């Protein structure tokens, strides 16, 4: 591994290609790729495709050509994150208590680190639901454990992310179980493009292929996670009535769009839910100020550190705002064509809860409690 310096100076960005190539050539490893929602609408730009063009099925083809044993979509575990996070929100709403702070999302590791460093008073208000990447990491390691033991293999999880902060998240002590990380390596979108080029694969000309089974179905809610407001829209879908008008009401509530701060109120189950969606840490600071001064009150707040959300992550190809808008549209188009719209109706995920690795183990595998700064990693 070699290291490069993050342009923000906040973290050191480790390049992980060497580690992944080594695993791919190791016959004792079952190498699994999971691909984050935002990657599919940006990777093609590295190969002359238009911003926003959904290349997920070409990505699966390329990953198999590179040598990955199994390829899955992180949107599947985004469905798990929504189920767990909305359980938390529903429980808070049912208490009907006066709370100074809302439930904050915690799937962005740069935001979590910001809270630890600058606003430790908010730590108790962060959702304890792990990010989709870490949920999938834990589920995959548990799911393949019996087969690994039988075949003398070790599952090696590679996450392909739009994000450089995910490398730091993968190494956090909270996500190391039995001495091993649940995510073994994180590749950015640009690193995957570089591996594709190294093999001389003509990406734009690839035939599409499907993800592997059994994690082959994701909901529309899971795929819009990659754009600002996507987590909130998916969460509200789960809590709202199961009708098309309810879905439309959420869509037009003000949740969509790439503005840095979006605020809206929506009625769910006879109760007004005050919500904010924030992208960019400067905007997060502004919103925290409004909450702390008592000027604003929210029940649920989504915060993503990158302006526009993960579609504009530091691991993505460089882009202008217009390109980001197209990436965002690409995710909403993928949602539109999804047969399953709500995360809790994803049959792959419900089966895991009913009689799979999440039966009686969801709390253990899918939740995390971030420690006070003094006790956490530097
Ligand atoms: Fe990573 Fe940026 Fe997405 Fe946060 S918003 S998870 S830092 S890409």
Shape: globular
Strand content of the residues, in percent?
Answer: 15-25%
Q: Whole-number radius of gyration?
A: 20 Å
The tally of structural domains comes to: 2
Q: Could you give the distance between the termini?
A: 20 Å
Describe the largest sheet. 4 strands, parallel
Mean pLDDT: 94
- Helix-strand string: EEHEHEHEHHEHEEEHHHHEEHEHHH
The structural class is: alpha/beta
Briefly, what CATH class of the largest domain? Alpha Beta
Organism: Alitiscatomonas aceti
Keywords: 4Fe-4S, Iron, Iron-sulfur, Metal-binding
Cofactor: [4Fe-4S] cluster
Protein name: [FeFe] hydrogenase, group A
Describe the model:
- The protein is an alpha/beta fold and about 375 residues long.
- The chain has 2 domains: about 1-75 and about 130-215, 3-Layer(aba) Sandwich (Rossmann fold), CATH 3.40.50.1780; about 80-130 and about 220-335, Fe-only Hydrogenase (Larger Subunit), Chain L, domain 3.
- About 40% of the residues lie in helices and about 15% in strands.
- It is built from 14 helices and 12 strands.
- The protein has helices spanning about 15-25, 55-65, 75-95, 110-120, 130-150, 165-170, 190-200, 220-225, 230-240, 245-255, 280-290, 320-335, 345-355, 360-365, and strands at about 1-5, 10-15, 30-35, 70-75, 105, 155-160, 175, 180, 185-190, 260-270, 270-280, 300-305.
- A 4-stranded parallel β-sheet has the order 4-3-6-9, sandwiched between helices.
- Helix 3 (about 75-95) crosses helix 5 and helix 3 packs across helix 9 (about 230-240).
- About 50% of the residues are buried.
- The model is unreliable at about 1-10 (pLDDT under 50).
- The structure holds iron/sulfur cluster.
- Iron/sulfur cluster binds next to helix 6.
């Amino acid at each position: 591994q070699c290291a490069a310096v993050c342009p923000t100076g906040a973290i050191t960005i480790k390049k992980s290609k060497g580690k992944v190539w080594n695993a791919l050539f190791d016959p004792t490893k079952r190498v699994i790729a999971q691909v984050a929602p935002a990657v599919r609408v940006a990777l093609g730009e590295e190969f002359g495709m238009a911003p926003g063009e959904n290349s997920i099925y070409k990505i699966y083809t390329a990953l198999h050509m590179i040598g990955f044993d199994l390829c899955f979509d992180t949107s599947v575990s985004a469905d798990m994150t929504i189920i767990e996070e909305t359980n938390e929100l529903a429980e808070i709403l049912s208490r009907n208590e006066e709370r100074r702070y809302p439930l904050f999302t915690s799937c962005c590791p740069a935001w979590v680190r910001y809270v630890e460093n600058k606003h430790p008073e908010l730590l108790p208000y962060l959702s304890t639901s792990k990010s989709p990447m870490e949920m999938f990491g834990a589920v995959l390691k548990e799911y393949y454990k019996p087969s690994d033991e039988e075949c003398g293999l070790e599952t090696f999880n590679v996450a392909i992310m739009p994000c450089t902060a995910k490398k730091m998240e993968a190494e956090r002590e909270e996500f190391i179980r039995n001495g091993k990380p649940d995510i073994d390596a994180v590749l950015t979108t640009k690193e995957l493009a570089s591996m594709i080029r190294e093999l001389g694969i003509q990406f734009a000309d690839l035939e599409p292929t499907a993800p592997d089974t059994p994690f082959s179905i994701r909901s529309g809610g899971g795929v819009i996670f990659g754009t600002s407001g996507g987590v909130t829209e998916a969460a509200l879908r789960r809590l709202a009535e199961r009708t098309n008008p309810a879905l439309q009401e959420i869509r037009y509530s003000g949740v969509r769009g790439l503005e840095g701060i979006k605020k809206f109120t929506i009625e769910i189950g006879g109760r007004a839910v005050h919500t904010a969606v924030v992208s960019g840490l400067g905007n997060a600071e502004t919103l925290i100020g409004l909450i702390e001064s008592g000027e604003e009150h929210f029940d649920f707040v989504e915060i993503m550190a990158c302006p526009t959300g993960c579609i504009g992550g530091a691991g993505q190809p460089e882009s202008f705002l217009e390109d980001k808008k197209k990436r965002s549209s690409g995710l909403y188009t993928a949602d539109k064509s999804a047969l399953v719209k709500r995360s809790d109706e994803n049959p792959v995920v419900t089966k895991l809860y009913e009689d799979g690795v999440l039966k009686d183990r969801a709390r253990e595998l899918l939740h995390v409690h971030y420690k006070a700064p003094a006790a956490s990693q530097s």
